[in-house]
């Protein structure tokens, strides 16, 4: 009788734990690589200083780096870490990182049995109306982008082509994949012109739709970071900030990382230029991007 009662209790506990796991996180195939897309402009590119991280954080990153891979601007897949950048007058350090570093760390620690591939495309000073436009035209890029190089970029297609090439690489390694979601940090440059300000919400919807349609992921989770610069036309940034909320209100698979509108930017700290997130700001941004992507897994 005692053994029978104990068995019943053990079965009940197991069922309760199983339900809890299913509720908290989507169950994935162990050998299936979780693909995370990242895109945007300079704050997605990142100006975090790796050398400012604590030894404890560096150790945590190193511990998961063997199962978190990063491909930036169609580069070869590399283990999660910083990227080398030439020191500039503005940022006099070489080992830089963007949100991808703590997106990767947070997801890897949340899913200790999974492998992740982060595919990122980020170019500073680019607009959704121009270089990132899902309905790209040379006329639009010339209208808003500065310089012939930026005017030639069709970044949405460049990113999607990079994604496809990375998936071919996975296939060659006999690995399957699952699209975990996408993080977007962009919008400052669209505040320059009235046409790009007023079309931001619609263009963002089209961008999300293009990724979902092209990659055949109907409910691809999408997390957008809300800009808070003071660049461009008066009132433009506020309209774009509200555009993020509008898009999220209409799509249950979209979430927004809401930010303080004015300085001091204590939520996501910035460098002295009050535009680009510093080391702590990038730590927080990457972490919240990951947590919001995890939150969206339960809706799929």
From TrEMBL:
Leader peptide range in chain numbering: none
Keyword Hydrolase: yes
Keywords assigned: Hydrolase
Superkingdom of this protein's organism: Bacteria
Domain Sialate O-acetylesterase: 33-294
Annotated InterPro entries: Carb_Esterase_6, SASA, SGNH_hydro_sf
Record bears the keyword Hydrolase: yes
Molecular function terms, GO-annotated: hydrolase activity, acting on ester bonds
Pfam families in the record: SASA
Protein name: Sialate O-acetylesterase domain-containing protein
């Amino acid at each position: 009788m005692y053994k029978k009662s104990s068995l019943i209790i053990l079965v009940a506990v197991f069922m309760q734990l199983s339900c809890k796991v299913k509720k908290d996180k989507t169950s994935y195939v162990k050998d299936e690589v979780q693909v995370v897309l990242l895109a945007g402009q300079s704050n997605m590119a990142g100006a975090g200083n790796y050398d400012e991280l604590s030894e404890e954080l560096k150790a945590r990153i190193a511990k998961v780096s063997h199962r978190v891979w990063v491909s930036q601007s169609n580069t070869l897949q590399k283990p999660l870490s910083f990227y080398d950048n030439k020191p500039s007058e503005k940022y006099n350090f070489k080992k830089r990182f963007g949100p991808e570093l703590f997106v990767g760390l947070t997801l890897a620690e949340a899913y200790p049995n999974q492998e992740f591939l982060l595919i990122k495309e980020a170019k500073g000073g680019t607009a959704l109306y121009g270089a990132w436009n899902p309905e790209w035209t040379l006329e639009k890029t010339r209208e808003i982008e500065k310089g012939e190089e930026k005017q030639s970029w069709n970044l949405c297609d460049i990113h999607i082509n990079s994604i496809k090439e990375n998936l071919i690489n996975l296939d060659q390694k006999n690995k399957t994949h699952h699209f975990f979601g996408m993080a977007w940090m962009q919008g400052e440059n669209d505040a320059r012109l009235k046409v790009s300000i007023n079309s931001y919400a619609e263009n963002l919807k089209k961008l999300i739709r293009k990724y979902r349609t092209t990659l055949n992921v109907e409910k691809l989770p999408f997390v957008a970071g809300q800009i808070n610069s003071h660049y461009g036309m008066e009132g433009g940034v506020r309209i774009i900030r509200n555009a993020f909320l509008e898009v999220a209100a209409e799509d249950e698979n979209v979430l927004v990382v809401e930010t303080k509108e004015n300085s001091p930017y204590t939520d996501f700290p910035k460098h002295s230029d009050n535009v680009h997130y510093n080391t702590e700001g990038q730590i927080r941004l990457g972490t919240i991007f990951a947590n919001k992507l995890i939150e969206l897994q339960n809706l799929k």
